[in-house]
Specification:
Protein name: Fatty acid-binding protein DegV
Helix content: 40-55%
Number of strands: 12
CATH topology of the largest domain: Hypothetical Protein Tm841, Chain: A,domain 3
Radius of gyration: 18 Å
Number of helices: 10
CATH class of the largest domain: Alpha Beta
CATH architecture of the largest domain: 2-Layer Sandwich
Organism: Corynebacterium crudilactis
Keywords: Lipid-binding
Order of helices and strands: EHEEEHEHEHHEHHEEHEHEHE
InterPro entries: DegV, DegV_C, DegV_domain_contain
Structural class: alpha/beta
Strand order of the largest sheet: 9-8-7-12-10-11
Strand content: 15-25%
GO molecular function, one term: lipid binding
Length: 274
């Protein structure tokens, strides 16, 4: 049996893609307290149970687990604890330093290799390589939710509110940092296209555009990126997972990109591929 691939729901993998590639998705937790919502990571017991089920399916070939950045959730440390339950390194946990479809893309690449009979080490290596070639930006239509979560600095929040700016954030080393400040959505999208073009360096790109209550805006950004990025690039529109939407707020649009993608391991073969 092939190596089994597990992600948590913060990877934003669409269900049809997860099913096609036989990737197991474990849901993170959203907790409602009246009008307030919060999120919670997965426990080591939950993850150990998930890993055990997949080992039962895959046998000695092992499990590769990819989870949200350890800087953003307790899930990674729980995963390391859970993996230690199993002997002989049968469960490998990737330190992704990322979230969203950057993690999803790494899982897709590993799953395609697993289907071809690759070893656990080979699947781990392609996942790590994909993550190294990834960037994730997120356009925040408003900053109320992310300010409450503490995932941006007080100074950034105050300046953005005072100047009525709509920031573009970038994930770097597992943490969120300010990449650009814009006044309008159209200027933000133009900046995202510019950032992707510069980073692509004329090479094909895999792009996943995430949205939270902003489907039309996400489609608009997708059209701009498709017109601007090199031939051979591929595109996917996904929903931002509810656990991420709690912190990004309505109207948020993310861009997760894998650069220098000269191999077909991320192509879905579905409409929308350029």
């Amino acid at each position: 049996m092939p190596v089994r691939i597990i992600v948590d729901s913060s990877s934003c993998l669409p269900l049809p893609v997860a099913e096609e590639l036989d990737i197991t998705v474990v849901n993170l937790h959203v907790m409602n307290d009246g009008e307030d919502r919060s999120t919670s990571g997965l426990s080591s017991l939950e993850l150990a149970a998930s890993y055990a089920r997949q080992l039962e399916r895959g046998g000695d070939d092992g499990v590769l687990a990819l989870h949200i950045s350890k800087e953003l959730s307790s899930t990674w440390s729980s995963a390391v604890t859970a993996a230690a339950v199993f002997d002989d390194g049968l469960v490998r946990v990737v330190d992704t330093c990322s979230l969203g479809m950057a993690v999803g893309a790494a899982a897709m690449a590993a799953a395609r290799m697993a289907k071809d009979g690759a070893s656990l080490q080979d699947c781990y290596d392609i996942a790590v390589d994909t993550l190294k070639r990834s960037e994730t930006w997120i356009y925040l239509h408003r900053i109320d939710e992310i300010r409450k979560s503490g995932r941006i600095s007080t100074a950034t929040a105050v300046v953005s509110t005072a100047l009525a700016t709509r920031p573009i954030m970038r994930f770097n080393g597992g943490r969120m940092e300010l990449a650009a400040k814009t006044r309008t959505q159209s200027k933000a999208f133009a900046k995202l296209v510019e950032l992707a073009q510069i980073r692509a360096e004329g090479q094909p790109v895999f792009i996943a555009i995430g949205q939270n209550e902003a489907r039309e805006a996400a489609k608009q950004l997708g059209d701009l990126l498709e017109k601007s990025l090199p031939e051979g690039s591929s595109f996917m529109l996904v929903d931002i997972d509810p656990t991420l939407a709690v912190h990004s707020g309505p109207g948020a649009v993310s861009v997760s990109a894998v650069f220098a993608n000269e191999t077909p391991e991320l192509s879905t073969g579905k409409p929308g591929t350029k």
